[in-house]
């Protein structure tokens, strides 16, 4: 079973979407490389996946904001067995931008932007050479909420900006790689039932067991379902809970209209 699909590398695998996605991939026959900061959580998940799926599971304890750790994970992502990369790790750094701690700002940018880009750059060339591969970058519906004020949404200038980058980066990369065998997706969940809001990102949520923040949200399995269904349909932008793709299609049309009108205005 473990040799049928190749190996999937999943960042942020110790909880939430990452853990649920890793479980789903393993159940479908993928060997997995689980990456996160919490060793005990990774070990628990790895043991469960080995027992329930018979697949091979590696764990890489790494803080993707650390250059040395990121380089180590990137080397693994470049392996010739990696057929699926889920860039799921992310931290929020919520709070008023004028009061944001510089160290936390740097950490958010490193994890949400630099790590996503670096790991994609590590994995894509080998996927192209082999003629198959899947890249899923996890963004957020907050990438589309730039003009909305906080309350009830969080104060999120930095986080929203990083997720806006992930959306644009992934869409542009998908356009560049159109016509190749690679599947590229940006996954944009809304509020999800995870522990994400329990930490701003300086340190991971403590404890061995996963928890859910008080705000609740969409069950993680539904997010994974939406992502996998969109991959099958060949859709680059996946917004779980959005049944009609017209708003996403309209986004591309609005962008084209802006560029067209700007060119006319310059003549």
Features:
alpha/beta; 7 helices; single chain; 7 strands; 267 residues; seven-stranded parallel sheet; 13% strand
| Spatial ordering of strands, largest sheet | 3-2-1-4-5-6-7
Mean pLDDT: 94
Order of helices and strands: EHEHEHEHEHEHEH
- Helical proportion? 40-55%
Structural class: alpha/beta
* Radius of gyration of CA atoms, rounded to a whole number: 18 Å
Give the number of DSSP strands.
7
**First-residue to last-residue Cα separation:** 61 Å
Treating each run of at least 4 consecutive H or I residues as one helix, how many helices? 7
Strand content: 5-15%
- Overall 3D form: globular
Task: Give an account of the 3D structure.
- With 267 residues, the protein is of the alpha/beta class.
- It has helices at 16-27, 39-53, 67-77, 102-130, 157-176, 220-233, 246-265, and strands spanning 7-11, 31-36, 57-61, 82-87, 134-138, 183-187, 237-238.
- A 7-stranded parallel β-sheet has the order 3-2-1-4-5-6-7, sandwiched between helices.
- Helix 1 (16-27) packs across helix 6 and helix 3 packs parallel to helix 4.
- The mean pLDDT is 94.
Give a brief outline of the structure:
With 267 residues, the chain is α/β, with parallel strands linked by helices. The chain is 45% helix and 13% strand.
Spell out the blueprint of helices and strands.
Elements: E1 7-11, H1 16-27, E2 31-36, H2 39-53, E3 57-61, H3 67-77, E4 82-87, H4 102-130, E5 134-138, H5 157-176, E6 183-187, H6 220-233, E7 237-238, H7 246-265
Parallel strand pairs: 1-2, 1-4, 2-3, 4-5, 5-6, 6-7
Helix pairs in contact: 1-2, 1-6, 3-4, 4-5
């Amino acid at each position: 079973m473990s040799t049928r699909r190749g190996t999937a590398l999943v960042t942020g695998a110790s909880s939430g979407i990452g853990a649920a996605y890793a479980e789903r991939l393993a159940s479908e026959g993928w060997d997995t490389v689980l990456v996160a900061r919490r060793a005990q959580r990774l070990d628990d998940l790895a043991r469960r996946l080995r027992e329930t799926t018979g697949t091979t599971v590696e764990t890489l304890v790494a803080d993707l904001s650390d250059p040395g750790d990121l380089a180590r994970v990137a080397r693994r992502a470049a392996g010739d067995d990696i057929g699926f990369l889920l860039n799921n790790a992310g931290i929020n750094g919520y709070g008023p931008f004028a009061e944001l701690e510089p160290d936390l700002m740097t950490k958010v940018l490193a994890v949400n932007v630099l790590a996503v880009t670096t790991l994609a750059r590590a994995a894509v060339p080998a996927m192209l050479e082999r003629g198959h591969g899947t890249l899923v970058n996890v963004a957020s519906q907050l990438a589309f909420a730039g003009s909305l004020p906080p309350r009830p949404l969080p104060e999120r200038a930095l986080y929203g900006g990083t997720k806006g980058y992930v959306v644009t980066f992934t869409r542009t990369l998908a356009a560049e790689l159109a016509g190749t065998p690679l599947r590229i997706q940006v996954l944009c969940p809304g509020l999800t039932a995870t522990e994400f809001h329990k930490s701003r990102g300086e340190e991971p949520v403590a404890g061995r067991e996963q928890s859910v923040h008080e705000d609740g949200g969409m069950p993680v399995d539904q997010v994974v379902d939406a992502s996998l269904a969109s991959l099958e349909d060949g859709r680059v932008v996946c917004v779980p809970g959005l049944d009609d793709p017209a708003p996403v299609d309209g986004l591309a049309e609005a962008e084209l209209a802006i560029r067209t009108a700007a060119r006319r205005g310059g003549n």
